[in-house]
Each structure stands twice: as C-alpha cells, then as structure tokens.
C-alpha cells in the first residue's frame, strides 16, 4: 500500500510476531499505522463461549487497524498473527505528516478504507438477510472480484475460515459447498473451491 521506503523515511520501525501472537487487543487505543511486510494477520472478535468471529484476513502489502486510528476509538477487534509475521509500524502523528506531504498516498489509503467499508456493508447485509448458500456465493464472488475476476478463481480459504468470516457453523459451510457444487455454482478441485 504505502511504499516501504516512504514509511521508513517517516520513522516506521519493524515489528516481528510469532504465530498466535497478538498485535493489539479489542478495546485497546489505536496509536500506530501497521503494514504487513511478510506473513498474515487476522482481525478477530472472541465470543464468551470461546468461539471467534473472523473480521478479516490481511496479508503482505496490506495495512490493518486504520479506522480506530483515524476515528480515535478503541480497536473493535483483536489482531493476531496467523503465521510468523513482520510488520512496519508508524506512529499516528508521523502518518498524518506523511499523508499531508503525499496526497497520492492519502487518496490510495482512503480508497482502501472505502473498499473495506463496502465489504463490511455487504457482510452485514448477507449475514442478516440471506440463507447460507447466498452468503457463501456473495463472499466468494467478492474475493474473486478483489483478485481481478479471473476466469477460474481458486479459493485458498479453508471451510473453517469461510465459517468464521460468515458467522456460519463449519458444518453448514461444508454442506452448503457440497450443495453448490451439485447445483453447478462452483467446483471442487482437490478439496479446494473453484469459481
């Protein structure tokens, strides 16, 4: 998203996390801009019964946690490394100066935030209004569009991850994927979903 050299020029430092390590917890105040160099982060809400709701998956080149930073509210979810991860972190005042001096970066950042808002709006509507098959197809189609709408899109998410992203039970996801395959709305190749 933001060029590494520019982030470092404004004082960004590297932070390394082991798999399972928490970057920030739900309810903590936001103080830094985070951008992933290597690895993968997940934004999750932990429910009292021990289950997790997966808000999003962020990979190399992506940033995370900006809305609370710009909105001055606590993190609404926790960020956990799903594999060993290296991030750049930049203090909020330095980020503001970077954005003041680089309007093109400012525009790209806010375009990214707008896309995330679109995703959250779609996700909220799907979860509250539609059956499981519609929810899954909408989510998978969204990821395919984000990948540039290739003719054949291989879904790398597991059934558990799809369940965590939609709020469905994993058993429901498994049954629904099989149903959608029988209806010809998706294909399975070596256990992976293909659109």
Automatic annotation (TrEMBL):
CDD domains: CAP_ED (cd00038). Pfam families: cNMP_binding, HTH_Crp_2. GO terms for molecular function: DNA binding; DNA-binding transcription factor activity; kinase activity. Residues 1-116 form the Cyclic nucleotide-binding domain. The lineage of its organism: Bacteria, Pseudomonadati, Bacteroidota, Cytophagia, Cytophagales. Keywords: DNA-binding, Kinase, Transcription, Transcription regulation, Transferase. Residues 128-195 form the HTH crp-type domain. PROSITE patterns: CNMP_BINDING_3, HTH_CRP_2. SMART domains: cNMP, HTH_CRP. This is cAMP-binding domain of CRP or a regulatory subunit of cAMP-dependent protein kinases. GO terms for cellular component: cytosol.
